[in-house]
Amino acid sequence: MLQLIRGFKDILPGEVELWQHIEDRARALFADFGYREIRVPLLEKTELFARGIGEDTDIVEKEMYTFADRKGEMITLRPEATASIVRAYIQHRYHAVDPVQKFFTIGPMFRRERPQKGRYRQFYQINAEALGIAEPLIDVQLIHLLVRLLQRLRVDDATPHINSLGCPVCRPAFREALLSFIAGRREALCSDCQRRSTRNPMRVLDCKVPGCREAMAEAPAIIDHLCPDCAAHFAVVREKLERLGIAYHLDKRLVRGLDYYTRTTFEIHTAALGAQSAVAGGGRYDGLIELLGGPPTPGVGFAVGFDRLAEIVALQQADFSRPAQLFIAALGPTAQASAFDWQIALGEAGFQVEMDYADHSLKAQMKRADRLRARRVLIVGDNELQTGEAMLRDMATREQTPVALDRLVDTLRQSLANS
Ligand code: ATP
Ligand code: MG
To answer: Region 272-297: what's the mean pLDDT?
Structure first.
C-alpha cells in the first residue's frame, strides 16, 4: 500500500473544519488591525534562506529540503516565511512607495527534522510581519495580536515569554562575555555546539540538548549588556504590555534559532504543550532587509505553529464539523428524481442537503442520515408523491410536521432559516 512520506500528514474532513475555524479567526483579527494578506511561493532560491536565516542555524545546516532543479540551480522548499516576504517587499519596491507595510500569510513550511508529536516535516504557520516601523509600539501590537488570537480561540493561558537580543552596537560586548563563559565549559556541550560556539555563541543558548541547557544555566544574560537605545526600546515594550494587562514572563535566556533577530524577541507558551515547545515565536529583525539587498529598514513579525495551535484548540472544543441540515430519504426512482431537484434548489439557496443516490432501503437511508448527523429528515415515497404531502422529521425533538411538496423549497427555506 502506498503511504505518505514520514513527517507529512493529511488533514482530513472532520479535522479540517477546526483548521478553517482557526484560519477564519486569524483572518478576521488581521483585518481588524490592518494586516494585508500576501502569498509567496513555496520554492525559492536556496541562497535566500542561507543568507536570510543564517548559515550556522539548525534550519540551514540540517533541516532544509534543498534540490538541484534540472538546470542545476539550487532551490529550497521554504522553511519559514519571513525571508520570502522580505524578498517580495524588496523586489516589489514597497520601500520606495510606502515603507510601512503590514502583511500576513498562512501556509505550509518544510523542515527535515525528526518527526514526533507536534513536529512535522511539512507543517503550517500563520505569519505576520510589520515592515518599516522601528518603534517598540509595533512589537507590542504583534504580541497583543498573538494573545488575542489565542483568547478568541479560547486558549486562555497563553503567556508571552520575552527578551531583548540587543543590536550590532551592544552585541559584541555580550558576545565576548558569552565566549569566555563558554570557554570554561566546552567539554559539557554537544558536538554541534562545540563546533559552532566560537563562530556563533548565541546558538548555544538556543540548544535544546539537556547537557547544553545545564551547562548554560548560569550564562550571562543579554539584557544586562544592552546599549542605552536597546534598553529604552525594551523598557517601552514592557511598559506597554503591562498597560495592556498582558502578563508576560521575562526569559533572559530566550534566543531564537534564526540569525536575523535583534531587540525584542518573544515566544508564546501554553501549559497544553509543556515547557519545551512554543505555539508561536517571533521578534524584531532590523538587519534583515538590508542583508537581503534592500535599504536599511526595520522589521518585526511572528509565526504561529498552526499544527500545534490546532492541537491545543481541539482540546477545548471537540467537534467543528458541520452537520447536514436536511436528509431526504427518497424511496423509488420517481421520488429520487424529485429529491435530486430539491437538493439542487436548496443547495443553491445556501442549505446543506444530503440524499442517498442509490435506491437503498428506508432503514439504510435512515442510518446514513444518522451518520451525517442530519438535523431533519424528509421521507418521500410514491404515497407522498401521490398525496402531495410528506413528513418533515426533526431528529432532535422527534417532532413531525407535514409539508406540501409543491411548496417544499419555500417551506424548507423558512424552517431551516428559523433554526
Ligand atoms: P522549535 O523550537 O519548537 O523547534 P522553532 O524555533 O524552530 O521551534 P520557529 O521557526 O520560530 O520555530 O517557528 C514558529 C513556530 O512554528 C514554532 O513556535 C512552532 O509552533 C512551529 N513549528 C516549528 N517547527 C515545527 C515543526 N517541525 N512542526 C510543527 N510546528 C513547528
Ligand atoms: Mg526548530
So the answer is: 91
